Amino acid sequence: MNLDNWTLAAYLAAAIFFILGLKKLSSPRSAVQGNFLSALGMLIGVLATLIDNGAVGLGLIFGGIALGAVIGVVSATNVKMAAMPELVALFNGFGGGASMLVAATSHIEAAEASYAESVATIAATIVGAVTLTGSLIAFTKLRGKLRSGRIIGPRWVSGMLALTAAGIGTMIVVYDDNTFFGSNALWLLVMISALLGVVAVLPIGGADMPVVIATLNSLSGVAAVAAGFVLENQLLIIAGALVGASGLLLTQIMCESMNRPLAVVLFGLAPSSETIDSNAGAYDSRIRPTSAEDVSLLLETARRVVIVPGYGLAVAQAQHAVHDLAGRLNSMGIEVVFGIHPVAGRMPGHMNVLLAEAKISYELLLTMEEVNPLFEQTDVTIVLGANDVVNPTARSDASSPIAGMPILDVDRSSIVIVIKRSLSPGFAGIPNPLFTADNTLMLFEDGREAVTRILQSLRQSKPSLNKLT
Asked: Average pLDDT over the chain, rounded to whole?
């Protein structure tokens, strides 16, 4: 078997690992194995490509892999779970940026290129640059360093930049380097596309970040497909298609979960979710505060408890304390389940990842469709750091930024305990009438400290503690 056949065999093996890995990522139980298989496929593909092209020596290849592995391990192990969406946003951006650079440099170095290759180069350049800068803006917004309400510009700017990029790309395809801009046309296209990514993502509200991350993930796959056509690399085309398709499906799921079409999120056809100001004054004196000791007394008499996690749980790193609390309640004969909203947190599946890290059984993590019918027969619901996904305004106010968004119907429980550090609004920036409902009690404290104190109070009343695994 010659080298080309060995390379194709390696590509086939890598593609199989990608598909198997993606399949296993569909379930939290097999997600770790899916990640491993996908990474193994990527390793095989990179090695096969570099060896086949003979671009560099084996020493440099393995040295680069070792260096990248160290950077990846250090980054992934040191990042806090609350910051995981930011890491995902960076990964999306780096993927798009790599596709852009590979396609652009390959086009520049080529003696001549066919129309098909030129079109693929332009597609990889535009989509890759938009993904890179758009992901960097998403990363900055997720870190809380940027609020769109302060810097919203007219939407027509994005349209003009997109038309300009398309025009320059067409000139490059038709006239190659004999354009008005000469040999700098491609790099001008990179700059305009990068600016388009910034302008397009800046006005999008933080509450829509799960949709934006899923969309950027899909775009990084599209850029990889285009780069694969430029390089005539079958594996890159396959991998990019898998990423693009799965990202698109995830985007659709997120939009359905929020009941907002993708055009509304990306093109601002609804008011930005961060343009509405809210403060504690919106609640007057109707808030009913409680204490950890009082909450423990309520829990002792409950038969079913639903715990609803949100971004505040991630910030407080309260997942392990919640694990112990649920185990304690379980040992007391109390049924405990978790209600997971698909867009809770800052990325798809954020809460599932957090609770899985605390080794909470997957069977206890109920989807919105599974848990909503249970709330009317629930004695106590604990809302830990969630806000917009439990806001009844989505059902009652047609003018609200979250109008029509499916929510967790926690207000239908007998008693609702909301654990928050303050009355600050969620990313949607609007008051939450749940906080003033007759059946709601507010526990103003850090999530982990509050859960720990509730657990301590329960332990004083009854001795044993079973692990919830």
From this structure: 83
Model confidence over 274-291: pLDDT tens digits?
Answer: 444 444 556 666 789 999
Residue 39 Cα distances to 11, 69, 189, angstroms: 14, 11, 32
C-beta separation of 389 from 254 below 8 A: no
Residue 446 is a catalytic residue? no
Write down the catalytic residue from 388, 397, 411, 446.
Answer: 388
Per-residue pLDDT for 13 more than 60? yes
CB 427 within 8 A of CB 274: yes
Close Cβ partners of 310 (under 8 Å, ≥ 6 residues apart): 341, 344, 345, 351, 383, 384, 385, 386, 387, 389, 390, 426
Q: In what order do the strands lie in the sheet with 335-340?
A: 365-367, 335-340, 304-309, 380-384, 415-420, 440-444
Torsion angle in degrees (nearest 10) through CA of 283, 276, 350, 224: 180
pLDDT band at residue 455, thresholds of 50, 70 and 90? Answer: very high
Instruction: Give the model's pLDDT for residue 277.
Output: 43
Output the CA–CA distances (angstroms, integers) from residue 323 to 37, 281, 302, 456, in the order listed: 29, 34, 18, 14
Strand partners, 305: 336, 380
Task: Tell me how far apart the alpha carbons of residues 215 and 375 are, in angstroms, rounded to a whole number.
Answer: 32
In 110-233, which ranges are continuous DSSP H helix? 115-142, 156-175, 185-201, 209-231
- Residue 462: Cβ-neighbour burial (10 angstroms; 0-12, 13-18, 19+): exposed
Cα distances (Å, whole numbers) of residue 255 to 11, 47, 209, 385? 34, 38, 11, 22
pLDDT tens digits for 227-258?
998 888 888 999 999 999 988 888 887 777 66
Residue with the two structure tokens 């990068």: 194
Alpha carbons 419 and 437: distance in angstroms, whole number? 15
Q: What is the pLDDT of residue 275?
A: 41
